[in-house]
Specification:
With about 120 residues, the protein is mostly helical. It has one domain. The chain contains four helices and no strands. The longest helix has 27 residues.
Length: about 120
C-alpha cells in the first residue's frame, strides 16, 4: 500500500522588486519545490540508505529542475523567462502525476506566476 505523502504549503515570503533576474526566479522555484517535496525526497533517501541531509535533498531538487530545463530546451545555469514558464508548467504537471493535490499545485503555480511576471524579458 502506498504511503500517504504530506505536502507542505509554500508562499513567497519576501517582497520582490519590480524586476528580478531569471536566476533569482529559478532559485525561488528551487525553494518552492524543496519546501513542497523536500520531506518526501528526504524520506525516500533515508529508505535507500543515503544521506538525507538538507544539502543532499536540495541537490536532488536541483537535479529535478535541471531535467525540467532540458525538457523546456532551456539552461538551468542561464535561464530565461520563457524557459522558466515552461519549467513551472512541467513541474506542475509532474507534481500532479506524483499525486500532489490539485489545490496545492494551483496555489504554488499561482505564486510562481507572480514571481515570473517580474522576470526581465529575454532580451539581453
Amino acid at each position: 500500500m502506498a504511503r500517504e505523502r504530506l505536502y507542505r504549503e509554500w508562499a513567497l515570503e519576501e517582497r520582490l522588486p519590480s524586476e528580478i533576474s531569471p536566476e533569482r526566479a529559478r532559485d525561488i522555484m528551487v525553494d518552492c519545490f524543496a519546501t513542497v517535496h523536500g520531506p518526501h525526497y528526504a524520506h525516500t533517501k533515508r529508505l535507500l540508505g543515503v544521506s538525507a541531509e538538507e544539502a543532499d535533498v536540495r541537490r536532488s531538487i536541483k537535479g529535478i529542475l535541471r531535467i525540467a530545463f532540458r525538457q523546456a530546451k532551456g539552461d538551468f545555469e542561464k535561464p530565461d523567462r520563457d524557459s522558466l514558464y515552461e519549467v513551472a508548467e512541467y513541474l506542475r504537471e509532474k507534481s500532479v502525476t506524483w499525486g500532489t493535490p490539485a489545490h496545492v499545485t494551483a496555489t504554488h503555480f499561482s505564486e510562481m506566476e507572480r514571481v515570473l511576471l517580474r522576470v526581465r524579458s529575454n532580451q539581453n
